[in-house]
Amino acid sequence: MAGNLGSGIDDVPDGRRADQVSTDTAYYRADVRDLNPGDAATRTLDPLDGKEYTYATTRLDVARGIAARHPDFSVYRVTLDEPIEEDPDAAQDGIGELFVRSPWGAVVDVVDENETRS
After folding, report:
1. Which end of the chain offers a freer environment for a tag, N or C, measured as fewer CB atoms within 10 Å?
2. What are phi and psi of 20, to 5 degrees?
């Protein structure tokens, strides 16, 4: 696995693998409108491993930028189930610390609601 801290196979001092993301991090996601706290976040199939993941970002401005391009999306703060790992595509581009994925996620808070445009 590729990570943003060296080879991705070395242990970091607190015992986590270098390609795992801290659980103290806030995660944001642009997702379909009208989700409420406690609702499951959308999961997407990774065709390379055949598993579904909830993708998120550690940057609120990035989630807002994604939602701005999709009129049917809002921005949510989400919680992610373990294991939380860097998005492999983002890690290849050297920005894995900004984009993560998890087997499942849930909405914690609605940050920005995108109003229906007429």
Report:
1. C
2. -100, 150
Q: Is 40 within a domain? A: yes
Give me the half-sphere count of Cα atoms (radius 13 Å) on the Cβ side of residue 13. Answer: 0
Question: What does the pLDDT average to over 81-96?
Answer: 94
What range does the domain containing 80 cover? Answer: 27-112
The rounded distance, in Å, linking the Cα atoms of 53 and 100 is 10
For position 107, what pLDDT does the model report? 97
Residue that is written with structure tokens 């607190």 in the block = 14
Model-level pTM?
Answer: 0.75
Q: Per-residue pLDDT tens for 31-68?
A: 999 999 999 999 999 999 999 999 999 999 999 999 99
Task: Give the number of domains in the chain.
Answer: 1
The β-bridge partners of 69 are none
